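Long-time lurker, finally posting.

We've been working with Cysteine hydrolase (Halomonas citrativorans) and I want a structural starting point before designing mutants. I don't trust myself to interpret raw outputs, so I'm hoping someone here can both generate the structure tokens and explain anything notable. Sequence follows.
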Amino acid sequence: MIIDMQRGMSDPAAGERNNPNAEENIQRLLTKWRSTCWPVVHVRHISRTPGSPFWPGQPGAEFQPALVPEPKEHVVEKNIPCAFTHSGLERWLHAREIKRLVIVGVSTSNSVEATARTAGNLGFDTHVVADATFTFAKQDYAGAYRTADEVHAMSLANLEGEYAVITRADEVLLIVS
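Top reply, 14 upvotes:
Generated this for you. Predicted structure of Cysteine hydrolase:
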């Protein structure tokens, strides 16, 4: 499952991010999934806020060129962080008897975390690929600045064990080879 890998996420205006090689790792995983003919789900955020880079028809809402879905791949559009809410994704996965999810994309602290939490709660064997996800720096609730690496690490810690297994691209590629 590739979450929100849209052109707007690579805009420098999005702010300081971590994992500069995340896109390369996502492409490696996608290439492997396609070569084995395993199901691929692309998730795209479509904003309800006029003027957003993710507003329908804006260039930022389009998939990044290297990650454009192939015709046989499933696309889920969402308006909130969780890819399961109001999307039919759970039904689509169950209809295909898919029980294990490997999640990559952006942002770790938002849509990736929200989707992985729901997947875990729904009973899916959920894996989040730490070096194929990324997030952005932000202020915490107390107003302290947190780097993108700190935000990323905390999101992964929130997921580890209770909702998902945290792994790395090379580990996933070894398992599926």
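Before you design anything, note these points.
The chain is about 30% helix and 20% strand.
The chain has one domain: 2-176.
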